[in-house]
Amino acid sequence: MPSLPVGSSPVARATPAQAPAVSTPVAPQQQAAATKREDGFDASKPRPAPVVTQPGVRPADGLKSYEELSPKQQALLGEDGKARWDALSAKEKAGFIVLTTRMEQNKLDSSGLKLKAQPEGIQQDRLLFEAEPKEAVERLKGQVQEAVKRGDFLEDKPSGGLHGDGMADYGARQWVTRESMQLGFGKDGLFVDIDRFGVKTDLVGLFGHFGEVIHNHTTSSKTDPFKVGKALHIDVASHLPQSAQ
Question: Would you place residue 8 in the very low, low, confident or very high pLDDT band (cuts 50, 70, 90)?
Answer without folding.
Answer: very low
